[in-house]
Amino acid sequence: MHRLHFILSATIGLAVGVCAPAALAQAAKAAPAAAKPRSQPVILVLGDSLSAEYGLARGTGWVALLEKQLAQDKLTATIVNASVSGETTSGGRSRLPALLAQHKPSHVVIELGGNDALRGLPLKSVEENLTFMAQAAQKAGAKVLLVGMQMPPNYGADYANKFAGVFTTVAQAQKTAVVPFFLKGVADGADPTRLFQPDRIHPRAEAHPQMLANVWPELKKLLR
Hints:
- By secondary structure, the chain is α/β, with parallel strands linked by helices.
- The protein contains seven helices and five strands; from the N terminus they run H-E-H-E-H-E-H-H-E-H-E-H.
């Protein structure tokens, strides 16, 4: 459990009549130094429209629900949602260094790659970009969680299979946590369109609790 621990420095009482500079200096030297407060975790979410509440009422997406989950589990953390609709791994790679410098996160959740696949971008570049982001976050002292995506078979079985494997490959190589399929229980049901908006790409608000349920077990492990 993460909490802020504030340690109050003890007040030192000097005996009456002990007022010489040497005595004051000796007392100050003997006093224990106050410990610095531990800062609470900062969770940076770097994602695309699935994390940016595209087409949803504010506060109904999985990142907003994460705040409630933290409170329910009595965990204290600050969440920075830096997700942008339409973002690719290349865009995330270019934005991440500034975000790390600004927010100094203790945890980074990378939910990117879906738009790369929708555009048919080379898998090699997706892997390289995810690797760069994972390494950059780790070098900044953050724990990393990769959130994986899968594509429907109509995009080509070979490309879809290889794309799905990129996230696990990067996670294993960089020793990060990973969620293999962000939309598990949402896009792979008997009626996959039921939980999606009319565009059949973006989940409805009803799907976001399940999306959080897919992410939370892995993220919670990193917060311990």
